[in-house]
Amino acid sequence: MKRIIAAICSILLLMGCAFAAELKAPAGIYADPQTRLIVDAGQNAVFSVNQNGELELFAGKINPVDVYGNSAGGYLNGAALEAQFDTPWDIVPFLSGYIVSDSGNNCLRYISGGKVSTFAGSRVAGLKNGTGSAAAFNCPRGLASDGSTLYVADTLNNCIRAVDKNGIVSTYAGSTTEGYADGERAKALFNAPSGLCWYDGALYVADTGNHCIRKIENGVVSTSREPTVPFMRKAASARAAMPTAGQAPPSLKAPMTWRWTAWAFSLPTPATAPCAGSIARAGYAPSSPPPLLQSPAAWSLSETSFA
Fold first, then answer.
1. In terms of C-beta density within 10 A (0-12 exposed, 13-18 middle, 19 or more buried), how is residue 21 classed?
2. Residue 65: what pLDDT?
3. Residue 14: is its pLDDT beyond 50?
4. Minimum mean pLDDT among 28-37, 92-101, 261-270: which range?
5. Are 16 and 259 a contacting pair, CB within 8 Å?
6. Whole-angstrom Cα distance, residue 208 to residue 131?
7. How far is it, in rounded angstroms, from Cα 198 to Cα 265?
8. Does residue 169 carry a pLDDT above 60?
9. What whole-number distance in Å separates Cα of residue 286 and Cα of residue 100?
10. Full-model pTM
11. Contact of 46 with 38, CB cutoff 8 Å
């Protein structure tokens, strides 16, 4: 049976010890065989990683830092290296470029052809459906795409939004009411969802405030109470099968280092009961299902099993 490994991280990994001095608060990563992009919420910029494992500024102007070492955010469209973001969070390919969730500006930005524009949202926090700037978000974070529709974890609105290729925004699941409820997606409740992943016809949600992973499929939101989790380890154990300090992945000449806690569990294909977590309490339960997650914030999928 084919296994899909999913890692849920409080903070994403830093790719290379040399990067630590340059990255302030990496929040989102996109990678394919040709492109590796890191969204740095602390410097309000997007970096690319070249074949030598070196960081290069991809989009965003890094403003002077304050006494705490934080770069001031801003809002400016135009040439990619002159554009300004405010706490950008995630990035996914969409249309002929990339969408960035600009959480501090409550909007979605679009990077294409060396330029940055605003794809949807008006910078004014709120919950409003509509096209482009007529729509409103409240701290959009996690992103995912099925190829034709963009999904957005609208974190402070406690819901999931959908955006089509024309920039038309609608509410896909949940409402502004904070809570926990499975069922029809329009009636389901979330608590500060922050991470998304599209896989095999379903949307998976890191429901941060509820300490669990939710699944949206065929119009229904569910959470597995007793998931099949044959493989679940803390990152310190899982890292044994991953590149460690001094070792480079085949496509990157830089070591990898995990930050904070990451979990990994296998999803059967077809994924029939892949969700994990419990809203009862947050914590670390290494032996007894359901696994307990504390503020899961991001998803990553790998088709290689650690076992």
1. exposed
2. 79
3. no
4. 261-270
5. no
6. 28
7. 16
8. yes
9. 35
10. 0.76
11. yes
Strand partners, 204: 197, 215
Tokens for 213, please give them: 């992973």
> Hunting for tokens 């969730």 — which residue is that?
101
Angle at 118 between CA 35 and CA 23, to 5 degrees: 45
3-state SS, one letter per residue, for 224-247: CCCCCCCCCEEHHHHHHHCCCCCC
**Closest Cα to residue 160, out of 104, 88, 214?**
214
More confident residue, 255 or 182: 182
Q: Would you say how long the chain is, in residues? A: 307
